[in-house]
Write a sequence for this structure.
């Protein structure tokens, strides 16, 4: 599903990673761990075309990442950034707009339902603006968008860093059961489950 | 009936209030005196030259010379826009040039033919002053629009990138930045139209009245020119942003870093 072949990433002249080879099969879950600032997020960004790859090739599915395939590749990937960089708008308008842009109909989570329960949201969430949400609420909103978009590949950058322990457990259990290819960057111990996901030690 | 002429000696008197301004600026350590003197000198020199060559342009009244003169004005305007927006001249020149030229030609020719009803569309008496007024007003709005658009994306690059992953389309990811820039660029003219006549009498109308026109004629011209200033600003801002997108982003939809 994802193949990284001899990848080199650099910032200015400093190499973040050289000769990285990694293969993630369809449905596989991979935890990437390593020191902060070592370039793990840059790898996710490179897979989305946001960060230049100095050498090597990235393949998503059968598509090599290049200017011609980038939009197709982005359509396959759900990315949850560390700060969930959503535009400041009212949450209901924002989510509806995202669903509309992705031609997804009849998926509006509404005021009650399994997704609202899983993420512990009350209907009041839909009356607030993104900048008024706490870090945890924003993270859960980001995850809700991911569940609604239902894309085959998930790149999650510290997806549970702002959640309480109960929620961390609940969310991680749910994500690990998904039939998706999931790459997770996290320092949270909740993801340290060798029986459920492989670990790649970065650097 | 024309306006009462101002003697050169009287014009020198118009400079007298500069003295207290320069003194206050010096005492308050505003460090503005050099800029004030340069701006005043440039204004006087530039308008002096305009007076000289407009005399000949009106005298010759050759359509191709008039068109060439206006083209030159557009080129100078493009330079000012890109300098003020702090965008790279060579990258954005074609985009800004055509985003001014297209609405300018349509608005000006429509104004001369349909609104005023003159046969010679390139008549210097109408083509040059009205063209100059449209261009001058278009300039500020395009500067606001372009600089707001690119500085907004640069400042909120993460939000833009995140939107790219969620919306599947560069245009949709750019839409909030586009909206914000157009509103910021158009707001001044909307405020100006809403308060015109209440807060200030516009320059064109004042000029016409001083030149001998009856107030109602001057007012009709002013209404028409305000509408066309609004049209050219609106389309100029929208086109300048849309035309520039191709040059401002790389094939991965990322904002190029060498455009500023």
């Amino acid at each position: 599903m994802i193949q990284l072949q001899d990848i080199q990433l650099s910032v200015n002249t400093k190499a973040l990673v050289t000769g990285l080879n990694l293969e993630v099969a369809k449905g596989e879950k991979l935890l990437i761990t390593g020191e902060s600032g070592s370039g793990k997020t840059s790898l996710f960004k490179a897979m989305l075309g946001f960060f230049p790859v100095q050498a090597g090739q990235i393949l998503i599915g059968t598509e090599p990442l290049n200017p011609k395939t980038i939009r197709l590749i982005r359509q396959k990937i759900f990315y949850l950034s560390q700060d969930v960089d959503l535009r400041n708008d009212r949450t209901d308008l924002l989510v509806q707009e995202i669903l509309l842009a992705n031609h997804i109909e009849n998926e509006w989570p509404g005021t009650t339902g399994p997704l609202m329960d899983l993420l512990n949201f009350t209907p009041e969430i839909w009356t607030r603006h993104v900048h008024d949400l706490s870090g945890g609420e924003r993270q859960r909103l980001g995850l809700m968008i991911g569940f609604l978009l239902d894309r085959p590949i998930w790149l999650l950058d510290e997806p549970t860093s702002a959640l309480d322990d109960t929620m961390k457990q609940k969310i991680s259990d749910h994500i690990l059961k998904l039939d998706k290819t999931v790459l997770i960057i996290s320092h949270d111990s909740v993801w340290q489950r060798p029986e459920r996901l492989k670990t790649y030690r970065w650097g | 009936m024309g306006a009462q002429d101002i003697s050169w000696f009287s014009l020198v008197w118009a400079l007298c209030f500069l003295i207290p301004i320069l003194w206050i600026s010096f005492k308050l350590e505003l460090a503005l005196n050099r800029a004030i003197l340069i701006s005043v000198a440039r204004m006087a020199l530039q308008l002096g030259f305009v007076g000289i060559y407009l005399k000949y342009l009106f005298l010759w009244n050759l359509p191709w010379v008039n068109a060439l003169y206006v083209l030159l004005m557009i080129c100078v305007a493009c330079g000012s826009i890109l300098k003020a927006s702090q965008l790279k001249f060579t990258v954005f020149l074609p985009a800004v040039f055509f985003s001014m030229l297209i609405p300018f030609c349509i608005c000006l020719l429509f104004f001369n033919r349909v609104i005023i009803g003159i046969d010679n569309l390139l008549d210097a008496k109408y083509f040059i002053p009205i063209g100059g007024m449209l261009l001058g007003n278009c300039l500020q709005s395009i500067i606001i629009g372009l600089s707001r658009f690119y500085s907004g994306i640069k400042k909120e690059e993460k939000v833009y990138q995140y939107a790219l992953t969620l919306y599947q389309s560069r245009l949709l990811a750019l839409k909030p930045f586009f909206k914000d820039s157009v509103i910021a660029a158009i707001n001044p003219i909307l405020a100006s139209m809403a308060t015109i006549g209440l807060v200030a009498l516009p320059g064109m109308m004042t000029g016409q009245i001083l030149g001998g026109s009856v107030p109602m004629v001057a007012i009709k011209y002013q209404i028409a020119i305000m509408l066309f200033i609004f049209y050219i600003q609106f389309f100029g801002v929208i086109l300048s942003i849309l035309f520039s997108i191709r040059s401002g982003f790389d094939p991965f939809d990322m904002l190029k870093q060498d455009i500023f």
Summary: The CA atoms of residues 113 and 121 of chain A lie 10 Å apart. The beta strands of chain A are 2-11, 14-24, 29-33, 55-60, 63-64, 77-80, 153-157, 181-185, 198-201. The domain at 2-201 of chain A is CATH 3.40.50.300 (Rossmann fold).
